[in-house]
Write a structure and sequence with these properties.
126 residues; mainly alpha; 76% helix
């Protein structure tokens, strides 16, 4: 895999992440229920990420046989990262207007998603 292709994959996953985490998560049904384990709203949000990752990787790597596992890993990781963030927000009573801890936790959440994409790229290069 070339360096150019690796950079394109990182770019595609980063743009996909923004689209799926912000505009496509604009319903309270999704973002309010990610802290309830197994709730369809949180599962749907992770599934949207999974679909976005599948599209991005299939477009860039049409012949890859590793994509399925990477897409599945993105679903599992995204779901659990978001669930943990929501549980910690609730436990510590963090809110966007009441605590800077909320924003730090949001940053950790975004960092973990980015590290997930680095792990996906690593898996694809093996």
């Amino acid at each position: 895999m070339t360096t150019d292709l690796v950079l394109w994959i990182i770019l595609a996953l980063t743009v996909k992440h923004f689209i799926c985490d912000f505009p496509l998560q604009a319903t309270p049904w999704m973002y309010r229920n990610k802290g309830t384990y197994g709730h369809p709203g949180g599962l749907m949000h992770a599934a949207i990420h999974m679909l976005g990752t599948a599209i991005a990787l299939r477009l860039l790597l049409p012949e890859s046989t590793t994509i399925f596992l990477c897409v599945l890993a993105d679903f599992v990781a995204h779901y659990h990262i978001d669930w943990a963030k929501m549980r910690l927000n609730a436990h510590w009573k963090l809110g966007p207007t009441t605590s800077e801890g909320f924003w730090i936790l949001l940053g950790v959440d975004q960092l973990l998603h980015g590290l997930t994409y680095i792990a996906i790229v690593w898996a694809l290069t093996q």
